[in-house]
Amino acid sequence: MTPETITVDYLIIGAGATGMAFADALLGESGHTMAVVDRHHAPGGHWTMSYPFVRLHGPSNVYGVHSRAMPSDSTGASLASRNEVLDYYDRIMRDVLVASGRVTYLPMHDIADVHAGRPAIARARSLVNGATTRIVVRKRVVDASYVNVTVPAMKRPGYDVEDGVPVVPVNQLVELGGAPERFTIIGAGKTGLDACLWLLNQGVDPDRIRWIAPRDAWLVNRSHEGAVSQFRELTSLHGHDSVGDAIAALEELGLVIRRDPAVTPSAFRCATVSSTELEQLRRIENVVRMGRVRRIDSAGVVLEAGTVATPPGTVYIDCSADGLTQKPPRPVFSDGAITVQTLLPCLVAPSAAVIAKLEALDLDDTTRNALAPPAPNPRAARDLLSFYGTRMERLHRWSGTPALFDWLCGSRLSAALFDLHEMADPDNRAAASAIAAHLDDVLKRDDVTV
Ligand SMILES: Cc1cc2nc3c(=O)[nH]c(=O)nc-3n(C[C@H](O)[C@H](O)[C@H](O)COP(=O)(O)OP(=O)(O)OC[C@H]3O[C@@H](n4cnc5c(N)ncnc54)[C@H](O)[C@@H]3O)c2cc1C
């Protein structure tokens, strides 16, 4: 059977937060046509598979797409639930993208292969009926799946489990029934934090919760974010010439917080909590810091640095997926292709929208790439410096290109860059650039592994 053929200017692979923000901004800034292809049945990427009680951990007013606000409370700063996020993306897909008449949406389709060229030819295969759609791409193939988020429901745990031992993915926490006597939470990332907070909010006594946390991580303090002009605050880091000192200063400023006052975190993965949530988390005292889990059997847990026994009646909740993978950076713009990556660490939505805006501007790819250097997501504590330094550097870089700066200042997504509008003042621009250079310098000079 001859496959159906469609011809578009852009093929966007992935309808997660990245693909949606890119498609929406390109639609608004150009007259081009697009096909958006995704394996899932609905737009929203990993949100379609996340645990039911997940919420945004950053405010709703900086998440989503450029053209429409995500429903929120009057402050704009509430944290949308999974259902709200999915409903939002569903409406954007139907009412904005498809309704424009310029976007073809193919859910439940896998991009099987792409032949580069002018035009490029891709094949999208239906995961339901197996039919293939041939997609002729006149301009670019946009990979909006490169960031590659993994949530626990997408993979098996990376450790062995003896048959019969109750280890369940976090998605099933709401379905356990029978009020287990004890819980062991495995993983100290955003998902592990969420699972602990959810149990505490359900009234589970903290003594019934054991938390396996391979590494303590610095947490972004949501209660502080946006409170004060960030680049002015960061200016005070000029006096701090080692990574450890600079991190101590960030803590002193209240930008980042630690879960346990007695433990210096060695990781940073952009997880964000409010001071109220932090207070709750500190109620859990049984925290196991013995590295990663290797095996769980009926006696207990075998970890990298030893073994802990498990009392009967314990249910293990697996929260160990690495939601924030680190991919090697590559040029965003290349011949016939765009690889969407974070330009601001951890902030996929504004990053993808900026990339779309750059594509719509009359620039060459060398200039576009100079304005869009990828910023890998953080892992170690020292990456806190590049997290804040990159934000300052991007403020400086983007405010020097009026066509981008003016658009970004008018975009709802720019709320993620707290001080953007202040960059119209050359002194402020210079201050942002200086702090970025200082933090970069500290990182280069001080290569201790914190
Ligand atoms: C629990 C959790 C909470 C988070 N909260 C926030 C937050 O509050 N604020 C924030 O800024 N960030 C947050 N993040 C960070 C997160 O990275 C982004 O929010 C974002 O959802 C990532 O979207 P994405 O489109 O890059 O990836 P994904 O959601 O993984 O989407 C990629 C899509 O590509 C599709 N795809 C891949 N390959 C193919 C193929 N060959 N053919 C067809 N389709 C394909 C997949 O089906 C998928 O739908 C959170 C992350 C997690 C895990």
Automatic annotation (TrEMBL):
It comes from the Bacteria. Pfam families: NAD_binding_8 (PF13450). This is NAD(P)-binding protein.
